[in-house]
Structures are given as structure tokens and as C-alpha cells.
Amino acid sequence: GRFEILCLSGSYLVIDDGVTRTRNGGLCIALCGADHRVIGGSVGGVLTAAGTVQVIVGSFMYAGSKKSRKGKAGQEPAAAEEEQ
């Protein structure tokens, strides 16, 4: 049947170790049927849209090993060094 997509969210993390490439994550969806009942769950296959769908995508890189160049309370590095 036809459903209205209320929310489609999720994430994937691609791990590439030089030899193999694996993908972890998934998509969750909330749908509304013609009888206005809301159902939801995990996406386990192909989704086919009957009309226009707007998708917003973001990508973020983890940079936990890099040191911050800001000093105390967001000061510039030169000002933070002068205080020390």
C-alpha cells in the first residue's frame, strides 16, 4: 500500500582497513497509512517512493586525535599563551 513518510533517519559507518570494506548501521522509518495510523521500524530492503522525496544528508569526520588550537574559553592561541 501507499504510506506517507513521516520520518526517515539513520546512519552508516564505513570501515576500510585496506583489505576489506564493511558497513555498519541502518535506517529507521515512521510511516502513516491512509487510515492515519502511524507505524515504524527498521528498513530491511528497498524503499520506492511514489512521489517527490526531499533528503538531507550530512557527513562528519571524527577528529578526536587532533589537538584544539583554542585556549581558555575560546581565546585565540596567542592570547592563551600570553596568559600562561
The largest pleated sheet is described as: 3 strands, antiparallel
- Low-pLDDT stretches: none
Count of DSSP strands: 3
Q: Estimate the strand proportion.
A: 35-45%
Global structural class? mainly beta
> Numbering strands along the chain, what is their spatial order in the largest sheet?
1-2-3
What Rg is obtained from the alpha carbons, in whole angstroms?
Answer: 22 Å
Total helices: the number is: 1
Instruction: Write the element-wise H/E pattern from the N-terminal end onward.
Output: EEEH
Oligomer: single chain
Function: Transcription factor that specifically binds AT-rich DNA sequences related to the nuclear matrix attachment regions (MARs).
Domain PPC: 1-81
Keywords: DNA-binding, Membrane, Nucleus, Transcription, Transcription regulation, Transmembrane, Transmembrane helix
GO molecular function, one term: minor groove of adenine-thymine-rich DNA binding
